[in-house]
Task: inverse folding
């Protein structure tokens, strides 16, 4: 008898996820048709390689992945603007990138995003080419601000969804202005007067919002269709995408796009209790965000970009008090739900290694940007699968010989005994193509475990 | 009495610091004395940041407390003469890059350490750096950049300063996201700093103070 999902242990869930990844389906639910027996073998070998590395074992060789920023666009010779408004061009760029280097995993073509969708929604939180940043800009830009005011913690704590719908979303999407008219749905209780609650849906601002939502959703579907087809095509060619979605450390959720860097840092002094409560309130929501994404996409890898906990941002004591406890809960919640948390330690994480060690072994992947990998291997190597650390600066300005030398060093140090995936350490928009090639080729050759 | 504000500010005691200023002003304390104390407090904050006792939240909070103190002192400082500054430092985020959080921290720390900062903002065209050096006679230039794209703009800015015959009269420091020693050599800068206090130390080394 097969165990039910909810009865499985975290180990059993992880195993079930890998079994599922090893027999991929097409969108109709049939077995994916590989283009050749070789591509099928290559697909499965990659999945097993990642599985072994994750579980801190030695795969046949060090897996090699590329998780780019906007580099594929430069590589293909199109602008970000073109990629954002022509999904086929966007996909063509990522196709060339993936097929030129044939990494063990690819991470989809979602980075540029759908320009028209952002326009329809009147997205105010970010600038993109022609909208808040220059036409020829090659990355989008977050406009940091205090989208959530210091006194709004109480509303967030009372009902996070109501806070998001009524206050936050209309601020960051101009098209959602109609939402400001909505009463809390929890006030809809009895027959007497119940109809009053529904009047806002008929008022002009809400009618505009509804129209925008319909149009925006159609655009989002069109975009997602192009991305989905791309993933299927790459899988059939032997290169899996196991990325299921993303979630965030609660501290970054508040610090990045709600209160802003300055806002959250002042809250640490001026209203630490409120901040703590909000971090705790967001924890199950962040777990749900990751689990929900994994369920929707059928992929277990949940990306968690880490921003404000890096070396130099917070003191050791601040990291332990404000950043880590709720992030740890999010990670454990995702593991419990059968996901593979994939954390990107942007900047350096040297001073955090002893703290992040406190996770179950073989369950998480950590993308390291500028962390000392010798130290990382020594302190967390028996717990966390390490990923990355090829510097973006090196990919852009080093010689291929220097790249090979550093690749060798990473394989010798971080790859020792398994538990390491070769990759870039941070998202790169620019690189010398031959440097990426050198990193990939050298890993395939030198990274074989004997 | 003297020195209490130094301690309140450097220990990041906001209500105590602001309350102290109110009381001192009411008692007729010379606002210039309070301003001097606030500066001394900020120097200690900078030192603690350099010593890794304080981190970014502490730095940002100290800036907010200082802002509160200054706004209380300002109405009483009408006749104060412009204070003497150590030297001029030009700072900007290079062309094509519009990140400003790191740059603003550097500007703030240079300012509280007595430098006159010419903040050119973000996405600063190469020529603007050159023009500002000519106009101001500044001897230190700080180039900030978060994106890998910024490496090219930094390099172009250094080249343009060289082409204008100004390279010998300025020291150039760089900083930001992926900046390291290799990038410093690549763009032809004199030094790089990984945080705001390193920028202050570099400027102090070059200008004095």
Result:
């Amino acid at each position: 008898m097969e165990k039910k999902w909810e009865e499985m242990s975290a180990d059993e869930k992880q195993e079930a996820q890998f079994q599922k990844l090893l027999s991929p389906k097409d969108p109709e639910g049939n077995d994916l048709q590989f283009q050749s027996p070789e591509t099928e073998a290559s697909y499965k070998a990659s999945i097993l390689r990642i599985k072994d590395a994750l579980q801190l074992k030695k795969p046949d060789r060090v897996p090699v992945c590329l998780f780019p920023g906007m580099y594929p666009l430069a590589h293909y010779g199109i602008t970000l603007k073109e990629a954002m408004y022509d999904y086929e061009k966007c996909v063509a760029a990522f196709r060339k990138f993936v097929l030129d280097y044939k990494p063990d995993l690819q991470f989809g073509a979602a980075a540029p995003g759908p320009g028209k969708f952002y326009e329809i929604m009147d997205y105010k939180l970010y600038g993109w080419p022609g909208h808040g940043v220059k036409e020829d800009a090659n990355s989008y830009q977050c406009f940091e601000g205090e989208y959530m005011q210091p006194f709004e913690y109480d509303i967030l704590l009372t009902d996070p969804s109501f806070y998001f719908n009524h206050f936050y979303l209309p601020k960051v999407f101009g098209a959602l202005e109609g939402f400001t008219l909505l009463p809390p749905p929890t006030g809809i209780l009895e027959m007497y007067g119940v109809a009053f609650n529904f009047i806002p849906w008929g008022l002009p601002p809400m009618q505009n919002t509804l129209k925008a939502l319909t149009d925006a959703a159609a655009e989002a579907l069109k975009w997602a269709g192009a991305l989905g087809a791309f993933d299927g095509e790459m899988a059939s060619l032997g290169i899996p995408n196991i990325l299921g979605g993303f979630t965030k450390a609660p501290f970054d959720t508040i610090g990045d796009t709600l209160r802003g860097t300055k806002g959250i840092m002042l809250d640490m002094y001026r209203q630490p209790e409120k901040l703590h409560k909000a971090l705790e309130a967001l924890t199950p929501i962040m777990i749900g965000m990751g689990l929900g994404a994994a369920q929707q996409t059928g992929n277990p890898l949940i990306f968690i970009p880490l921003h404000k906990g890096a070396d130099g941002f917070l003191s050791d004591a601040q990291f332990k008090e404000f950043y880590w406890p709720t992030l740890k809960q999010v990670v454990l919640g995702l593991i419990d739900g059968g996901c593979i948390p994939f954390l990107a330690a942007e900047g350096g994480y040297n001073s955090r290694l002893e703290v992040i060690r406190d996770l179950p072994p073989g369950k998480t992947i950590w993308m390291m940007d500028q962390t000392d990998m010798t130290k990382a291997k020594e302190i967390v190597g028996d717990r966390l699968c390490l990923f990355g650390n090829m510097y973006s600066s090196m990919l852009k300005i080093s010689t291929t010989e220097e790249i090979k030398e550093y690749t060798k060093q990473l394989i010798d140090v971080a790859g020792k005994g398994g538990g390491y995936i070769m990759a870039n350490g941070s998202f790169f928009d620019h690189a010398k193509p031959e440097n990426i090639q050198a990193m990939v080729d050298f890993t395939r050759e030198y990274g074989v475990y004997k | 009495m003297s020195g209490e504000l130094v301690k309140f500010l450097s220990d990041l005691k906001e209500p105590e610091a602001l309350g102290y200023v109110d009381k001192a002003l009411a008692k007729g304390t010379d606002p210039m004395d309070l301003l001097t104390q606030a500066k001394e407090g900020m120097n200690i904050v900078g030192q603690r940041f350099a010593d890794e006792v304080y981190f970014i939240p502490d730095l940002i909070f100290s800036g907010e407390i200082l802002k509160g103190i200054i706004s209380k002192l300002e109405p009483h400082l009408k006749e104060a003469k412009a204070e003497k500054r150590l030297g001029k430092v030009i700072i900007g985020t290079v062309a094509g890059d519009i990140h400003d959080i790191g740059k603003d921290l550097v500007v703030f720390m240079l300012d509280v350490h007595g430098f006159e900062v010419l903040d050119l903002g973000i996405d600063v065209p190469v020529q603007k750096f050159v023009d500002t050096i000519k106009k101001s006679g500044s001897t230190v230039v700080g180039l900030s950049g978060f994106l890998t794209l910024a490496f090219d703009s930094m390099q172009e800015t250094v080249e343009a300063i060289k082409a204008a015959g100004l390279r010998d009269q300025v020291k150039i420091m760089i900083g930001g996201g992926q900046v390291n020693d290799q990038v410093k050599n690549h763009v032809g800068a004199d030094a790089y700093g990984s945080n705001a206090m390193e920028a202050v130390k570099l400027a102090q080394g070059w200008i004095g103070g």
